[in-house]
Amino acid sequence: LRNTNFSASTFSTDLGSLARMRATIPASICCILVIIYSLQITPTCGAPLCQTLSPGTVTFTPSQFLVPAGTTCELNPGNYSHTNVDIYGTLLVKTTAGVSNVRLIADQLRVMYGGAISADSLGYPSNAGPGKGASIALGGSHGGSGGCCVSCGIPGEPYDSVFTPSMSGSGGYGSSNAGGGIIYLEASIMFLNGTVSANGQSTTASDSGGGAGGSIFIVADTLSGGGYVSANGGTGTVTTAHGGGGGRVAIYARDRTGWTGVASAYPGMAVPQPARAGAPGTVFLKDTSNNSTVLRVDNNGGNYVGTASGTKTAAVMTFLTDPGIMAYRFDQVIMSRGAQLGVWSPSSSLYIGNLTGAASCVLHSWLNTTLLLDQHNQPACMIYLHTAGAAVLPPAVTLLYDLVVEGPITGLLNILQMGTTSLKFTSTGSINGKPGVYALSQLNITQGAVATITGATVTAQTLLVTEQAKLITTGSSIQAEVMSVLMQGIVHADLLGSTSQQGPGAGLKNPIGAGTGGGHGGNGGNNAGYFVTGVSYDSVFWPILPGSGGGAGQDPGGVGGGTIVLNAQVLTVDGRISADGGIGGQSAGGGSGGAIAIRTRVLEGSGVIRTNGGNCGDPYYSTQSSGGGGGRIALYYEAMGNWTGSIQAWGGAAAAAARYGGPGTVYLEDTLRNYRKLVVDNNGVLPATTTLSSVQGDSGNAYLTETGATSYYFDEIFLRGSAQLAVVSQPVADRAINITAKYLTGDSTGAIHVLNKQLLDFSTSHANQTASVFVYNGGAALSPPMLNLDKTTLSIGGTVSGVTKLNALAGSRLSLLPTGRIGSTQGTFEFDEVRLMHNAAMAVTTGVTTRANVFVSENAATVTGANIAIQATLVHVIGMSSMRADAVGTSMSGTGAGKIVGSYGSGAGHGGNGGDLALNNAGKSYGSVYWPVTPGSGGGNGNSNGGFGGGVINIVAGSFRLDGTLSVNGGPGLGDGGGGASAGSILIQTGDFSGYGLIQANGGSALMSYYSSHPGGGAGGRIAVYSARASSWEGTMQAFGGPANAHTGRYGGCGTIFTKDTTLNTTRLVINNNGVGTYYSTITNPVSDPGGAYLTDGLASYHFDEVNIAGKGQLSLVNSGATTITIAKITGDSSGSLHIPRNVTLNADTYLGSWVPSPLYASIYVYQGGVAKLPSKLSLFNVYLNLQGTAVGLAHVECLQTSKLILGARGNTEGSVPGQFSLNVVDVSQASSTVLETDVALYAGQVTVQQQATLSGGNFFLSTPSLVVGPTAAIHADGMSTNAAAAGPGRGKTDGSVGTGAGHGGNGGGTSQIGRSYGNVYWPVLPGSGSSVPCSFLLPRRRSINLLLKICPRHCLL
């Protein structure tokens, strides 16, 4: 009605609607309200207007409504108008069906101190209302949601108008939990010094919820007083009862400066925990003098649950739910004590001129609602912009509280984030751009603030992270003109990758219950014996994939690192940029590092950029959990001259019995110089192995895994900190791949591995090689012409081209494998020059030959391998250098392997038989004395394993100088009772042979213990040296047998040392056992007896210009037919022996000519069936000549210096029958002896026995025309009769317990039963008889043995 007079006898209207109109209509037509206020309002329900519920007199007239103190009055629904309303007591306002029918209007309304207008618990009853608690323990809702817990049901939805609240609060779940009612008050003058309340009902029952606060709507021209206005939710007072939500309060006043009271819509508290409070309601204040508005949301410290995520019922919070309102506008919004506020009206907006609040408060925007903050305003609480929400913010915002952006923001250009605040940019949100794009001018994160960017792109002119602030990002891109990470600032994606056992390189739980590490840039660590680990993946040039989770143990594995992408014109890092993997739980593997990709024009600072793998779980609980692999970093830059920081992609640490994760990769590209550098650094942690057994199974290594790549080009590959690098063909295995490294560098601890069908080209690299290279079978490498290995390894199992000169410097290693080559032939390595220096090492494998013009090993360098073959014009092994093939075989293996003999093992044989207690269990001899190329054999196993046999060294040189050591020694027994192994072979062919070094082919020692004292030593090996000029050789050669227990074990036999002067065509054989005598002085069976050296070539004839037998060495032959051994000269130290078995003929008759007495310094044993052609004149010097076979050519024998000549019963001289020896002269002197065995006949032209010498035998015949027996000499057969005790014609007898003497020329002694005389006094030719045995307990012994001599001299001098 505009400018209209209105008159009616009856007028009815909805004063709530009228009040809403009044809030919006111009002041010029407010006169209609004055007319209406003067109308008489009557109730519409027909009930009494008012009833008194307690003693007192209530005045209820149109002019006066008075409730005195101490009186309670109940007002029924209806419309009430009075001139004056004075409340000293209590006025209860009832509602019907939750909707108010009471309107209390007055010119003056006063609620005095102690007075109250109440609609407490007069709203919807329990379990009723639009926001009722519909399930167990839920509080009722109204302006705020009812209380609920995480696991209980969803509370009812908030409802009603924030501007004109007119609905009751909803009841909570249970009984006696009603919501607050409705109060509508209107007066020109209103004095509130008491209380006006519409509180929800509290609950004391378990599993119930408090009622929600109701509605209070106050309209006044002047409002004063200090009273309380409240629409609070009801409290839950037990642990399973949640509070009710706050109601709604709206106060309109032209002047409320005189009012100092409090208006509240607090949530119902939950006492005690774990019950939860409801959410607060709303308090709306409007100054009608200037139309300014204030919205208050005060949580009063309630502990309601959660932050909303998209629906009203998904969280407990306060909502603006006015139906039909599309735009909310508040000059001020005040949020307090943990309040959360959101707009529910779809496609609406919320404008806030001034937002004040606290860090615990949250302002939400969602479901197509737009939040608008005045450009002069700053957020004073957390703002949560949900996916479908939007916001318009001031151009510059200082964040003192959290900001979550899941929807679009416009207007905002500069963000200064300070304090302990959180800023979150998500993939669905935006700032001035499309979803996922955040376009800013400045983003400054400081003073410990935390910003999180997930799956988004952030652009800024300036981006600053400083003062312990953190920028957390994963799956995102950050682009800035100037980006600075300063003063302990952090940009990280730590632990933001795949979770435990997830991701492309996920670690696994191994069979023993421990976790392996996750892989990414490098494989994760694994456990010894379990070659399953997280594998490598992702691009080395632009990594964008997160790290993978570690394998689980008792707890989950570590989480992988996330991803960071940065693009800045100037990037300053004094803090940290990281995407580290997480530490594994108990006995679990670490997660792998993530990915960092950076493009910048200038990089500077002293901070750290890293994607390190996570460490294993606490090693206290498990020694088997492994570290995560390092991640990947790619950095593109134009300048980094002021960069002094660190870039890391290290593998994570492992427990004691497990392995570290492999390093990741760091790719650095100088885009200005077009210089591409790959850095792999494992922080000095040695890998479990330096070779690869399985590309995808080995831990400790970094891999290039570019999908579809057939070539990689790097200007430099830098390997550091024991890093290992290889290439994996993806997705097709064994694809041909070329890797080019213009420079291959490092700190000498790292290595690159070139696998099958791969080619590494580092031909332009520096000569000084500071990174190791392993080329595997099927792989290839192009090398610089000159390589200086500098504490590095070159291992060649494939093809290497280009190198002609190789210098292995201090601590370096050259490894040559039979599948490799340098040149055209597999297994052959052709150089112009090889030099090994300063403890460098060269390792070769059987089937490898090294060829060079010059091969030098010096300054303690070593060459090792099972079969070392060197062919060079010049070979020098000098300065304490060595070539060693010691103990390279296995136990119980080889042609001459030792045997198991009970609890001990016999020694292995080679150049000689192995040592053994028995005669038939020793390892047998084999191999060639002239051309030794056979390895040694393994010792026999006892309680523990036998030793390992020696290998083979074969050197062909124009000139060979040896000042160091060549050795092929057998290894000792490996434990209790293990037999020694035999030595191997050394073959040298050279022109000049010089030096003062050592050549060894010694057998291994037996390992003796208390439990097993019989193991045998290993035999010596074989050495052969062919040289044209050896006059300058002053060194030592050894082929000793291995030692054993001196009393019960047996030494191994010595080996053979053969030398030939190819210029003079002279040969020499040396047999020397280092002064250790074998247990047997004679050889019963030359094929099986232990302790001797043997010729086993199987030849029909052997020829030596000299055989030197010394050091108690023994030499024999193993022959299958008639064999001849020709020795021009036999030398020695009188301790060794030469054994001539059956079917063997010794040709030694040319020794020093036929007329000069030939000295013999080695014993000779000629066995039955053997033949020895000896010089006609032979002088024995402290040696034996034992003739059990045939002696040819020998006429004159001189026994000197305790020598011994034995003429055996089966032996003979040429032309005589067995047992007969014909010699011209036998001269025995100087304590020597000649023994004639029984029935042996010696026919000599002259026999001389003098100087304490003896000639003895049993029943022998001596015929000589000249016999001389000196004063101290003797010829005797004492005790040498063949008649045993109690035997012979005059044998003694037993007389009781006494034995009688034997008789011969006279009777034996005794009382009776004596031995009788016998024999011929003229021609005595019978031996003496034996005495009787006096008792059965005494061993028999020979007694009364007479000397039987048949002497026919022409001249005899006694």
Structural write-up:
There is one protein chain. The protein has 1358 residues and is mostly beta strands. It is built from 2 helices and 104 strands. The chain is 1% helix and 38% strand. The strands form 11 sheets. It has a 16-stranded mixed sheet that branches. Strands 2-3-5-7-9-11-13-15-16-18-20-22-24-27-30 form a 15-stranded mixed sheet, with helices on one face. Strands 52, 55, 58, 60, 61, 63, 65, 69, 71, 73, 75, 76, 79 and 82 form a 14-stranded mixed sheet that branches. A hairpin with a 4-residue loop joins strand 15 (282-287) and strand 16. The chain is elongated.
Write the layout of secondary structure elements.
Layout: H1 15-22, H2 31-37, E1 50-52, E2 59-60, E3 64-67, E4 72-75, E5 78-87, E6 90-93, E7 102-111, E8 116-118, E9 182-192, E10 195-197, E11 215-225, E12 228-230, E13 248-259, E14 262-264, E15 282-287, E16 292-298, E17 318-320, E18 327-336, E19 340-343, E20 349-356, E21 362-365, E22 370-373, E23 382-385, E24 390-392, E25 396-399, E26 403-405, E27 408-410, E28 414-417, E29 422-425, E30 430-431, E31 437-439, E32 442-445, E33 450-454, E34 457-465, E35 470-474, E36 476-485, E37 490-492, E38 563-573, E39 576-578, E40 595-604, E41 608-610, E42 632-637, E43 646-648, E44 665-670, E45 675-681, E46 702-704, E47 711-720, E48 724-727, E49 737-746, E50 751-754, E51 758-761, E52 768-769, E53 772-775, E54 780-782, E55 786-789, E56 793-796, E57 799-801, E58 805-808, E59 813-816, E60 828-830, E61 833-836, E62 841-844, E63 849-857, E64 862-865, E65 867-877, E66 882-884, E67 900-901, E68 904-905, E69 952-962, E70 965-967, E71 985-995, E72 998-1000, E73 1022-1033, E74 1036-1038, E75 1056-1061, E76 1066-1072, E77 1093-1095, E78 1101-1104, ...
Parallel strand pairs: 3-5, 4-6, 5-7, 6-8, 7-9, 8-10, 9-11, 10-12, 11-13, 12-14, 13-15, 16-18, 17-19, 18-20, 19-21, 20-22, 21-23, 22-24, 23-26, 24-27, 25-28, 26-29, 27-30, 28-32, 29-33, 31-34, 32-34, 33-35, 34-36, 35-37, 36-38, 37-39, 38-40, 39-41, 40-42, 41-43, 42-44, 45-47, 46-48, 47-49, ...
Antiparallel strand pairs: 1-4, 2-3, 15-16, 44-45, 67-68, 75-76, 101-102
